[in-house]
Every structure is written in C-alpha cells, then in structure tokens.
Write a sequence for this structure.
DNA sequence: CCTCGGCGAGACATAATCGTCTCATCGAGA
DNA sequence: TCTCGATGAGACGATTATGTCTCGCCGAGG
C-alpha cells in the first residue's frame, strides 16, 4: 500500500517533467532537425540525459510520444473549433488559429521524416479540414476547378507560413490567421479592384 | 606533358559523376533529412562511398557544394525569367515555373538546417523576387496592407506547395504554376462570385 | 597485348551518439 | 532529523557514421 498524496504529487511532477521534455524535443527538433541528439533535448529541457531515458525508454519512443502529443493537441483544437457549425470562411480562420496555437508541435507533423502515424494525421486532422473544403465547394464559396486535395494542400502551405510569421513575432496570432484566411479566399489583389489581367486555368483536371 | 584528349574526357567524366553525386545528395537529403549518410548518397548515386570522398573531401564539403549548386541553379533560372520585363502576374508565374524547374534542389535552400549561405540566397534569389512584389504594390496590382516581406513569405509557401504537387505528379509543372499564381492573386473563391462574407483585416501594422 | 588511372569494395581508426549503469546529492514527507 | 525516491553527472560498452587507406578490377589508350 502507498499514500495517495505521495502518488498524486509524484505523478503530477512526472507529467510536468514529461511535458517539459516533449516541449524541448519539439523545439530542438524543429530547430536542428533530425540530427538533434538526446543531449540537446536534455539541455533544452533543463534535465539530465538519463532522466529522459527514465521517461522514454528510447529515442524512438520519445519521437513517437512527441508525434502522439502533437497529433492529440492538433486534433483537440480542431475538434473544439467546431468547424461544422461555422461558415466556411470562419472555419478556415479557426483552422489557422488552431495551427498557430499548436505552434512548434504542429511542425512536427509536417516534417516528413519522423515517427508520425500518417493514417492518424489523415483521419484526425486532415479529414475534418478537408470536409470544410468540400462543404465550401458544395455551397459555392470555393472554386470547384481544383480538387479538394489540392485546395487543402494550398491552404496547408499557407498555414505553415502563418506558423512561421507568428513564430517570428512578425504578426500576432490573430492578425496572422486573418491574413492567411484573407489571402487564401480573396488573393493578393487589392480588394474590390479585381480584373486587369486574365489567368485562365487549364480546364479542370 | 599530357595529351589533351585524355584530360578532356577525364574532366567531362568527372563533371558527370560530380553532378550525379550532387543530384543524389539532393534526392536523399530531401527524402531522409539531415540523417542521410554518405552511404545513402553513394547508393543513390550508384557509386562507391569512397568515390564521393574523391570528389568532396568531407560531408560538409558535399553539403556546401550542393547548396552552392542549388543557389546557382535557382539564381540562373530567376535571372533568365527576366522578371522586370514582364507584367507582375506573369512574373509571378515565371517565378513558380523557375522553382518547379529547380525541383528537389530548391528544397535544399528552404530546409532550415544545412549549409546554406543565407546572405547569398537573400541577395541572389529573394531580392529579385521581392522587387516584383514591390513593383506590384506600386502599380496597384497587389495589396498594400501587407508588407512585401509577408507577401513574399506567403507566395513562398505556395511555391513549396507547387513543388510538392508537381513532384507528386498530381499536376504538371505548367498547371501547378498556373494554379498557384491564380490562387495567390485571386484566391479560392469562385471567380467573379465574390462577397457573401466579410473578413476585415486589422488595419495595416 | 600491356600499362595506367580511376573506380568499387571493404578494412581500419576515430568520433559521436545511444542506451545502461552506478553513485552522490537533494528535497519531500514521516 | 531521518529515510526514501528521484535526479544529475558521468563512466561504460555497443553501435553507427566519418574519413583514410589498400587492394583487385576494368576500360581506355598506346
């Protein structure tokens, strides 16, 4: 038998340290890439290298856990965004806000070479987003001359830029998401001042 | 003394092998990230590992040479695009075409963690592109509520998407560049069917 | 046919990292 | 104060990649 108080404190502390390690890992990985060593992570987390192995048995386990946390965080924010009950433009803005709020963790999911469960990302994150785009096309708010896949890719590319300029403090999170939504929906031409040049697309694929 | 013919053949062969190694390095690095080993590169290039060291004394030298080649290639294409003599929308399309033509090599320049001379990239590649955006704003073709820096970043994000969908063979190079240009300039709303939702931007920073 | 230069294969030493282990220390709780 | 558990520091062997070297091979040119 053991005292509950002790266990409670301990497990709370464990969670705290575990989170610190994962955050540090996200930071270091996004900064130095896959070549970041366990010592780098330990230093960034302010713990000893051995401590990391007490929480994550191997490097692979750490990376997998990080990926898991990133997916969960992104999924939670996407779910809370309640995309289905917002207008499409508002839903797009919420998606960007969710991505920016995820911050560095989100970039873990977009870095090709790591331990990311692509199927989970697809199902938990990309699918609900893609649903917004499909709805946008159905409602006539989004172009239908491009596949939803490509629209999602384009929006995703802009989302990464939002992450970057919000991380650089070039713009605040709110401004950044407004900019991305505005550019994606209406483009970079001065508002209301369209035309002046024709850009025919090859008829839809 | 030595025969010219021998030297000529040899140096031609050397150039050929050197290029093969650099191409393989670009391919492997973009696929596996910084963790790619010299053996990976050698295998991809179809040469022995020792041969790489005969051409590039160290791993660093290989990466630096690769970066150099990538910068030169991108710079050459940007220069040949003759951006200053095209309309802004046409210039944007040419930029995307140049990026897509660069292919995998271009992604070397955008991968944060490597031996890229940021100043050279800034001066040789980003500056001429930024000039197009500045001109676009001056001519009233591009919004002025965003800094040119941010516009370039946004366009860059879309350029990477172009690279990706062209690499996936989802779209041909021409289509991809047309799509990106069109989305960037006019957005994802159906053409001519604007309105329906207001998205006020915070007044320019 | 013979020589020669470069290539592939692989052995080798070195360095870095991983993963395990031990030990001294430190703080929380009895 | 004393005990216990977890931490940080660091030693250790194992693994892996780097960079150097040698050796056998092959194809080009004489």
């Amino acid at each position: 038998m053991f005292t509950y108080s002790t266990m409670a404190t301990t497990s709370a502390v464990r969670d705290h340290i575990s989170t610190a390690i994962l955050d540090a890992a996200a930071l270091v990985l996004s900064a130095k890439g896959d070549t970041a060593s366990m010592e780098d992570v330990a230093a960034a987390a302010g713990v000893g290298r051995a401590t990391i192995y007490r929480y994550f048995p191997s490097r692979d386990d750490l990376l997998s856990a990080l990926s898991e946390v990133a997916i969960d965080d992104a999924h939670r924010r996407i779910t809370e965004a309640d995309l289905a009950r917002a207008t499409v433009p508002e839903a797009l803005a919420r998606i960007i806000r969710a991505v920016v709020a995820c911050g560095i963790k989100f970039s873990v999911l977009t870095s090709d070479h790591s331990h990311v469960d692509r199927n989970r990302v697809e199902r938990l994150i990309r699918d609900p987003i893609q649903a917004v785009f499909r709805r946008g096309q159905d409602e006539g708010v989004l172009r239908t001359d491009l596949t939803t896949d490509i629209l999602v890719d384009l929006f995703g590319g802009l989302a990464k830029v939002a992450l970057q300029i919000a991380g650089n403090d070039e713009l605040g999170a709110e401004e950044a998401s407004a900019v991305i939504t505005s550019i994606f929906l209406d483009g970079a031409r001065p508002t209301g001042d369209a035309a002046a040049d024709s850009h025919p697309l090859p008829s839809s694929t």
User: Anything to note?
Assistant: Chain B has a mean pLDDT of 89. Residues 3, 5-6, 9, 37-39, 49-50, 53, 57-59 of chain B lie near DNA strand D (CB under 10 Å from a C1'). The radius of gyration of chain B is 21 Å.
